[in-house]
Amino acid sequence: MLNRKVLSALGGLLAAVPAFAYESSYNLPHGVTQISEEVRGLHMQIFWICVVIAVAVFGVMIYSIVTFRKSKGAVADQTLLHSTKVEVIWTVIPVAILIFMAVPAAKTLVKMEDTRNAELSVKVTGYQWKWQYEYLGKGVSFYSTLDTDSNYARQTGSGIDPNTVKDYLLNVDNPMVVPVDTKVRLLLTGNDVIHSWWVPDFAVKKDAIPGFINEAWFKAEKVGRYTGQCAELCGRDHGFMPIVVTVVSKEDFAKWLAEQQAAAKTATTTAPAAATAAAL
Questions:
Q1: CA distances (Å), 270 to each of 57, 256, 274, in order?
Q2: Any idea which architecture 2-112 has in CATH?
Q3: Same fold, 2-112 and 120-269
C-alpha cells in the first residue's frame, strides 16, 4: 500500500512537470530569432534529461528506503562495495550524457559567434547611463536614454504611481530600429565602465567593455517592439538604462533611415552657421 502511494505521488509530480515547464513565466520565453529558439530547445532538452535523471534517482532511493528499511529486517548488501564493473558503469553513463548534451550546445555556440555575412552593422556604446547606436556606413548615430515619464516617476518624492506609467523603466526616447529578416551585427564597447547589452527575445547578451570590441548578431523574424536591459552592474543608475529595439519592415526601415540621414545632414549644416553667428 505504501509503495503504491509513493509511486502515485511520483507519477502526479511527473505529470505536473510539463505544464509548469511550458506555461510557467519562469521558463525561457519563445524568442523571435532562430538562435533564441535553438537556445530554448537546448534548455528544454537538458531540462528533461535532468527530470528523467531526478525521477530515476529519487524514485529508486525512495523505493529502497521504504522497502528495505531496517524495521523490516533488511541487511545491507556488501557485495557491490568495491565492484569495478559498477564504478565503470556510473562513470561511463554520466560522461555519455554530458557528450549528448555538449554536442548540440557547441553547435549553437558556434552559430552565435558567427557574425559573417551581416547585412547591417551597428556600433553599440554603453555609457553611464545610456546607449549610443551608430549605424556604420549609414551616417546615423544617436543616444538612447530612459523615457521622460519613467524618469519622472522613478524620482523620490515624485508622487507618481509607477503603475500608471506605460512600460515603466522599459521605454526609451530613441529606440534602436532594425529591419526584419536582416542579419544585424553588433559591435559592442563601453565608454566608461563595463555594461552588458541584453535582449532576451534575441538570445543576445554581450558585455560592452571600454577599450575592447565584442561582437554579436541577431536576425529578428517578426516585426515588433522588443525590450531588454543593461545586465552588468554599472553604477548608481544601472537599473535605468533600458534597451528597446523596434523591428520594422524593410520598406519602413529604409524610410526611417532616410529621415535620420536627412536630420543628421541638417544638423551638420546648421551647427557651423550657428557657431559663426555666435562668434560675430
A1: 73, 21, 6
A2: Orthogonal Bundle (1.10)
A3: no
CATH topology of domain 120-269: Immunoglobulin-like (2.60.40)
Residue 129 preceded by cis peptide, ω within 30: yes
Q: Which three cell numbers stand for residue 260?
A: 535620420
- How many Cβ atoms sit within 10 Å of the Cβ of residue 35? 19
Encode pLDDT of 34-61 as tens digits: 999 999 999 999 999 999 999 999 999 9
Q: Are 215 and 115 in contact (CB under 8 A)?
A: yes
Distance separating alpha carbons of residues 179 and 250, to the nearest angstrom: 5
Residue 82, helix vs strand vs coil? coil
Q: What is the DSSP letter of 9?
A: H
Domain boundaries, the chain: 2-112, 120-269
Q: Is 94 helix (H, G, I), strand (E, B) or coil?
A: helix
Taking the C-alpha atoms of residue 214 and residue 121, their distance in angstroms, rounded to an integer, is: 13
pTM beyond cutoff 0.70:
yes
d(CA 234, CA 154): 18
Give the C-alpha separation, 132 to 174, whole Å: 10
Q: What are phi and psi of 214, to 5 degrees?
A: -100, 150
